[in-house]
Each structure stands twice: as structure tokens, then as C-alpha cells.
Design brief:
mainly alpha, Bac_ResReg_Asp_Phosphatase, single chain, 22 helices, repeat
Length: 466
């Protein structure tokens, strides 16, 4: 009836914590917000009295054409303005986007998120942004200034940030990708940006292989160049992170299919890319994932060797989460090899490293792991000592989830201790042992308390005068 619980559970695939969804698109240029024109400001005044007052104060002697403009919808006026200025492509594009928006709303139906949102033609601010950047992109394209055309299209992609507008943002990123191929004067900078954005879109849509091709192109175009995004990170380091993540995702799929050697090869590439990116955190995670792949392939010694590298990196970074995962993986491998003493030594090193680096959560994790190992070995007194220490350390951190977890582990070990005494009394089959069990059942006291002494105490208490 011995219950065993442990944190050293073998994973079938790489840990989900490592395989995060891609972050939002990096900003490769400062977003430009076009100012609303006087024409737009007039149209944003909703009530009739407000419009009349504005016209009386600011505009005198309106022509028939101008008066008609104030009566028309904002969408109609924008479309007329585009056609009058000769921006036929911008008109067609805007009209097609409005139609697609309406089709998506109809397809989603009442109650959907996009249905609750106003249609595109009812949002003057967004129509103004579309008018502003579409016409400038078209003018730049006609003049052969494809870099300006690209920048205007990229600004349009930045304009649509809501989840319901994601398709619009992706549409303009795709337009940027097509335009970037025509730019010849920037050394490939815009083409690199476009590949990064298309990689993110492909990854979000679940097309991992296509995303990998875009990220590889991004990496090749930025190798050795000093370009930076608006946060100050180089494009090259960003490309390395994207490639590391996508290679890890590909390896994860391979491990699911039991293609261990292919996964190892892919993760070795990921580790090399992570090193080139210069981010120690990414390098530590890459080494950790590679060690898991070697473990799944049955190459435990190689796995342990790479885990040591991961431990050194996470210790240098004071990364409590990474350090805990690395040591837990090492302990799991040692346990699978039947090396109980080496496992205890390994976890002792974990506890010392956590104490030296002042990693409070890691100290809790180390004690839990040690407690579980001793529990597995049947050394319940040592197990209870370590799980109790873990419980007290978790309380000191005021970490409620950790408190609950460590309390559970301590309770399991305490139950195992109790089972040992209970079993010995059951197997003895004598009157004294029976008295022990009955006394414990009645009072839930220490099972090792002498029942004769307890009975004597009861009699003494009863004989005392009130």
C-alpha cells in the first residue's frame, strides 16, 4: 500500500515551458500615425448642430461639391477623393478590404467578437489611416521608390492590433514581403524584416516548416550586420532566437514520432544557433532540450554531460527555474540507472548551488526532490526531514502554490512513516499491539505511545478530585 509520488517524472516530449508561442511582431521602424485632416475632423463631429457651428466658424461660401461631401458617408468621400486624385489601385484595395471585413462579420455571425465591433466603413479613424498610407504607398510605387512604398505598407500593418483585425495586419505584412523584394538600395534590410514578419505569421498559423524557411532567410540576410530594431536588439540576435525556437519545435515533433536521431541533429543545430546569438539564457535552454533528446534516445551519459553545461549557465544567470529543471532531469537519469547514491549527491549539489546563489525557490525544489528520493528508498525519517524543511521554506517565501505542494509531499511521507508502525503492530498479532492500534484509532495520537501508560494517565486523571 506504499504510495509514491515524485517530481522525477519522465517527459515524452520537450517541456512546454520552452516552446512558447512567438511574441508579437518586432517593430522595425517607428509607427507613423497620420494626423486627421480638416476634412476628417469635420466628419467626426456627430451631431448636426456641431457640424453647422463648425462650418459657420471655419468655412464660408461652400460650393455645391463641398456641401455634397458633408452629406456623404466618410467611406464614400474617401473613395471619391482617391479616384479624383488618380489612386485607382488604392481605391480598389480599400474597397476589397471593406468587402472582406463585412464578409468575415457575416460569416462569424451575431455574438462573435468581430460582429460586436463596428464595420471598417464605420470607423473613420481607420479609414483615414488606410487612405493616408495606401495612397502614399501607391505614389511611391509609381515613382519607383519601393523603400517608401514598403514603409507605408508596414505602417498599415502596425495600425491593426486587435485580434479581430489580425487578418488585416497579416495582409499588409504580406504586401510588405512582396515589396521588399523590389528594394535594392538598403542592402537587404527591409527584405530581412519582411522574412521575420512572415516567419511569425507562418508560425502562428501552425506552418512550422514554412516559418523555418523564412527565419533561415532572415538569419542569412542579417549575419554580420549591425542593424537593430527599436528596442536596441540586433536583427542577427533576433534571427538566432527565432531559429532556435523553430528548430526546437521541429525537434519536439520528431520526438513525438520517436525520431530520436533526427531530433538530436535538429537540437544540435538549435544549440549552435543559440550560442551565436549571444544570449546565455537561450543557450542554457537549448542545452537542456538537447540533453532531454539524448535521454529519450537512451544516451544517458551524453545527456548528463550536456546537463552539466546547462547547470553552469543557469547558475551563472541565477535562473532558479532553469536550475531546478536541469537538476531534476539529472536526478531522473541517475534514478533510471539505479544510481541512488549518485542521485542524492547530485541533489545535494543542487541544494548547495541554490544556497550559494541565494535562489530561495530552488532551495525549496532541492529539498522536495531530496525528500522524494529518500521516500522512494524507504528512508522515511530523512524524507520527512527534507519535506518539512521544504514546507517551512515555502511558507517563508509566502508562495501559496508551493506551500500547498510541499505540504502534500510532507503528508505523503508522514503517512508512509505511520504505515511502517501500523504494519509492525498488525504483523505482531499480540494483545499489546492491539492495544496500541486501538489507542491510536481512538485518539489519533502517536502510534508508538505505550497504551499501558496512556491508560494509567487516564485512571490518574479520573481519580483526581474536582
Amino acid at each position: 500500500m506504499k504510495r509514491q509520488r515524485t517530481k522525477l517524472v519522465k517527459m515524452n516530449v520537450l517541456p512546454q515551458a520552452i516552446l512558447q508561442s512567438p511574441r508579437e511582431h518586432p517593430r522595425f521602424l517607428q509607427r507613423t500615425a497620420c494626423p486627421l485632416s480638416d476634412f476628417a475632423r469635420i466628419h467626426l463631429i456627430k451631431d448636426k448642430d456641431g457640424i453647422d457651428d463648425y462650418l459657420a466658424k471655419n468655412i464660408k461660401g461652400l460650393s455645391k461639391q463641398e456641401a455634397a461631401a458633408h452629406r456623404n458617408s466618410y467611406k464614400k468621400n474617401i473613395c471619391i477623393d482617391m479616384l479624383r486624385q488618380g489612386y485607382h489601385e488604392s481605391f480598389s484595395e480599400l474597397f476589397a478590404l471593406i468587402q472582406k471585413w463585412n464578409a468575415l462579420r457575416e460569416a462569424a455571425g451575431p455574438g462573435s467578437a468581430i460582429w460586436q465591433q463596428k464595420s471598417l466603413e464605420e470607423q473613420p479613424e481607420k479609414l483615414e489611416q488606410l487612405h493616408h498610407f495606401l495612397t502614399r504607398a501607391e505614389a511611391a510605387g509609381r515613382a519607383g521608390h519601393y523603400e517608401k512604398m514598403y514603409d507605408n505598407q508596414l505602417n498599415l500593418a502596425y495600425c491593426f492590433n486587435d485580434p479581430e483585425e489580425k487578418w488585416l495586419s497579416n495582409y499588409f505584412y504580406e504586401q510588405c514581403f512582396n515589396t521588399a523584394k523590389l528594394v535594392k538600395i538598403d542592402g537587404g534590410k527591409r527584405e530581412a524584416q519582411a522574412h521575420a514578419n512572415m516567419g511569425l505569421i507562418s508560425e502562428e498559423q501552425g506552418n512550422v516548416m514554412k516559418a523555418a524557411k523564412h527565419y533561415e532567410a532572415f538569419y542569412q540576410l542579417t549575419d554580420g550586420l549591425p542593424w537593430k530594431d527599436e528596442t536596441g536588439h540586433t536583427y542577427y540576435s533576433l534571427a538566432c532566437k527565432h531559429l532556435w525556437r523553430i528548430y526546437t519545435l521541429l525537434a519536439d515533433k520528431m520526438l513525438e514520432n520517436k525520431e530520436h536521431q533526427q531530433a538530436i541533429n535538429m537540437l544540435r543545430k538549435a544549440l549552435e544557433i543559440a550560442k551565436k546569438g549571444g544570449d546565455m539564457k537561450t543557450e542554457g535552454e537549448a542545452a537542456y532540450c538537447l540533453s532531454l533528446a539524448y535521454d529519450f534516445a537512451g544516451e544517458q551519459e551524453r545527456a548528463l554531460s550536456i546537463l552539466n553545461t546547462s547547470v553552469k549557465i543557469f547558475t551563472a544567470l541565477s535562473d532558479s527555474s532553469g536550475l531546478g529543471r536541469a537538476y531534476a532531469a539529472m536526478a531522473k537519469i541517475l534514478v533510471s540507472q539505479g544510481k541512488a547514491d549518485e542521485t542524492v549527491t547530485c541533489l545535494g549539489d543542487f541544494m548547495k548551488a541554490a544556497e550559494n546563489a541565494h535562489l530561495s525557490q530552488s532551495q525549496v525544489d532541492a529539498r522536495v526532490l531530496l525528500g522524494n528520493i529518500y521516500n522512494e528508498r524507504g528512508n522515511y525519517n530523512e524524507a520527512f526531514e527534507y519535506t518539512s524543511q521544504a514546507f517551512e521554506a515555502a511558507k517563508a517565501l509566502n508562495n501559496l502554490p508551493s506551500v500547498g505542494e510541499t505540504k502534500t509531499y510532507r503528508g505523503i511521507v508522514e503517512a508512509h512513516k505511520l504505515m511502517v508502525a501500523f504494519k509492525s503492530h498488525i504483523e505482531a498479532e499480540d494483545p499489546i499491539s492491539l492495544k496500541y492500534l486501538l489507542e491510536w484509532k481512538e485518539n489519533k495520537s502517536d502510534m508508538c505511545t505505550d497504551p499501558l501508560t496512556v491508560e494509567l494517565d487516564k485512571e490518574t486523571s479520573a481519580s483526581k478530585p474536582l
